[in-house]
Design a protein that fits this description.
With 203 residues, this protein is mostly helical. 67% of the residues lie in helices and 0% in strands. Helix 5 (116-127) packs across helix 7. The longest helix has 21 residues, at 50-70. It is globular and about 45 Å long.
Length: 203
């Protein structure tokens, strides 16, 4: 279990934080995701890639908490209807960091400016390696809707990066999003808490 926490905690944190945008709620969602993994581990096919499966669990846990926070009467299918856009307000001072890290910061900032629906769709698609059908099932919308939100999200990220002099094709931007999401790091305090909850199994 300790190895699974080490390998996947950053992924789970990235997905849940993009949905919840709250440190305390994200911490709850991350812990609940690993609790679910341990509880239902016998239902997982070890021959399959764990990343998409765990991403679905993480998204479901985050959406559950999100809906509870918004309104206890919400259903998961209503989640995508509340799309609040984060304001593009802050200019970044990246003079003291490397060019590659600068681009990763810009990409994360660009993702943060997206409406919730596009932001989460991009995170699950590029970070969680879930296909569009899986994302649609988790979020309770059509596959066509997910495809459109991913397309719109990519275009908006491209426009945002252009403002900072980063001119790339959609294909390259897709890769930049993957790299940016992969650099998300779970806070040390939460990692230590997870490690104590899911210790290594003695050999």
């Amino acid at each position: 279990w300790a190895e699974l926490v080490r390998r996947y905690s950053n992924l789970v944190y990235a997905i849940t934080f993009q949905i919840l945008k709250s440190d305390s709620d994200t911490e709850d969602a991350v812990q609940d995701t690993f609790i679910s993994l341990k509880k239902y581990s016998n239902q997982y096919d070890p021959s399959q890639n764990l990343r998409p499966w765990l991403s679905r669990v993480a998204a479901n846990q985050a959406i559950r908490i999100y809906n509870m926070r918004k309104n206890n009467n919400y259903k998961e299918s209503n989640w995508m209807k509340t799309q609040t856009k984060t304001e593009d307000s802050q200019r970044l001072d990246v003079a003291s960091i490397s060019e590659k890290k600068e681009v990763q910061v810009l990409v994360r900032k660009a993702i943060d400016t997206l409406p919730e629906a596009s932001r989460v769709a991009l995170t699950l698609y590029f970070g969680g390696e879930m296909n569009q059908k899986e994302i649609a099932n988790v979020l309770g919308v059509s596959q066509v809707s997910i495809s459109e939100k991913i397309k719109i999200g990519l275009e908006k990220v491209k426009v945002y990066l252009n403002k900072f002099g980063v001119h790339s094709s959609v294909v390259v931007i897709s890769q930049l999003i993957k790299e940016s999401l992969s650099t998300s790091v779970v806070p040390e305090s939460l990692f230590l808490k997870l490690s104590s909850q899911f210790p290594a199994i003695p050999k």
